[in-house]
Specification:
Blueprint (H helix, E strand, L loop, with lengths): L1 H16 L6 H20 L3 H4 L5 H21 L3 E6 L4 E5 L7 H22 L8 H14 L5 H18 L1 H12 L4 H9 L14
Antiparallel strand pairs: 1-2
Helix pairs in contact: 1-2, 4-5, 4-8, 5-6, 5-7, 6-7, 8-9
């Protein structure tokens, strides 16, 4: 909220330090600014305000959210095709075989929940705007397709496992999130993980 905070501070100073200016002018400016920011977020996805750092914290969260998915996939041996960090969310493209074993199914479920776990670990909270709600929905759809008789239990177990991975590999998570924010390639992101884990070579499951 850097841009908004600076603007409000400036308007307040204008009202306090310029007694010869009608208070209607600062009030009108504040209302106009707030209205513009509201419309920008509602209809332009924050395109203007993001240039001024309004969504900097959100972008940081998105990086950690996608880094959680990426890190879990790397640790569990699923190949990663690509990733992207968007204005409001991100995505991670994984290579998943057509048929998966129950063990692999739980690994994929852990990857789904790893974005939420990464946010919780770094920020002590989760924002659904960064993709957590979508992750839960897609995980439940996958569990339903696989005929999981206890999807709620599987979801809770996957989140527990993801939280454990983020906690045990926190330095790798931090390095990975920083690399992703810099626009590093998947290979460069993997090297960032390898520098902070026991990996000293690319895991064989990454080779398709």
């Amino acid at each position: 909220m850097t841009f908004l905070a600076i603007a409000v501070f400036g308007i307040t100073c204008l009202a306090l330090l310029s007694p010869w200016i009608s208070p209607l002018w600062p009030t009108g400016l504040a209302v106009t600014l707030l209205g513009f920011l509201t419309l920008d977020r509602a209809y332009a996805s924050g395109a203007f305000t993001q240039r001024f750092g309004v969504s900097q914290e959100l972008q940081h969260r998105i990086a950690y959210h996608e880094a959680g998915h990426f890190l879990a996939a790397a640790l569990l041996g699923l190949p990663i095709d690509n990733y992207a960090l968007g204005n409001r969310t991100g995505y991670l493209s994984l290579w998943v075989p057509a048929e998966v074993s129950p063990q692999r199914q739980m690994q994929i479920a852990t990857i789904y929940m790893a974005g939420i776990a990464a946010e919780e670990w770094r920020f002590q909270s989760e924002l659904e705007d960064t993709g957590g709600r979508r992750d839960r929905q897609e995980l439940r759809q996958m569990l339903h397709r696989c005929g999981d008789p206890h999807p709620e239990v599987s979801e809770r177990w996957a989140l527990y496992r993801a939280r454990t991975l983020m906690r045990e590999h926190a330095p790798a998570l931090d390095a990975l999130a920083a690399a992703m924010e810099q626009g590093s390639s998947p290979a460069e992101c993997l090297r960032a993980i390898m520098q902070h884990t026991e990996f000293n070579t690319v895991p064989t499951p990454w080779t398709k």
